[in-house]
Amino acid sequence: MSNSRKTKVRRGSDSVNVKPKRMKISNESNPEVDNNSDIIDVKPKNLEISSQSNPEIDNNSTVKGHAAVEGIAEQLLSVESNLAAELGSITFHLPVEYVYSPLEYAFNIHTMYVQKYCSTVKKILFLGMNPGPWGMSQTGVPFGEISMVRDWLKICGPVGKPTKEQPNRKVTGFQCTRSEISGKRLWGLFKELCGNPEKFFQHAYIHNYCPIALMDKKGCNITPAEIKGAEITVIQSACDKALAETVKILKAEIVIGIGIYAEKRAQLVAQNYKLPIKVLCLPHPSPRAANNQNWSEKATKKLSEFGVLEYFIA
Question: Are 115 and 246 in contact (CB under 8 A)?
Fold first, then answer.
């Protein structure tokens, strides 16, 4: 018997529905949601963005063959929905036992993030690798540590469940009591520098290269860098294309990889898609990295060296 493993990709049609399945969630299963609270409506709304309020949008242009121009947020959500559908069609082999796709089960929260903070072009795109178990996997927001998303970004709402859930990595959304240290450090740095989210998002945006989290049977994280064979070929092909489209939509001039893996993928995408961008690297805020206790200080120094710190100082 051959030891080779193949990735099976379902190809039911040539078109992909840009709206991933949403899970109907009741307040009974999410006691943190109060019908009388001021939580933002969890159902995404279509934004009507005119070229008068957004001069960077040309009503006579086309996006991916569409006759009518969508707002930047809608374009980005469409790209991400297509990516989630494509990645969702991959059949992973061992050691991957669990696949979490927050762009599906937490799509409503992710939509809030995109529509609230990404309706204009961005000079700087911060690029992460993939969701962490206590960050984006819980909230649908890149590096989305609970308190930072809820209290600083002012985004909150019910979150669904992955199709197959690891017992030690359950998704409880904003009820999660664990803290994603990487996310708390990253968003915490910009909270300290900018004061308010609007200052940060005026020129920048945070995005993940690969929007799925992979785990083995015991719940140990498996990064895209650790995937081999046919699966990684499909993942990188889909994620590279989506990243190139994202850079074009945002008209980003600088992509800052958060960690070496994100930096390398951005460099390859810039080269293969002939994107006129500068690719830089910020140390990953993970507490597992050696000598990373003073990450905030190191990151601030890097931003200064890159010549972009001025965009974040309040």
Answer: no
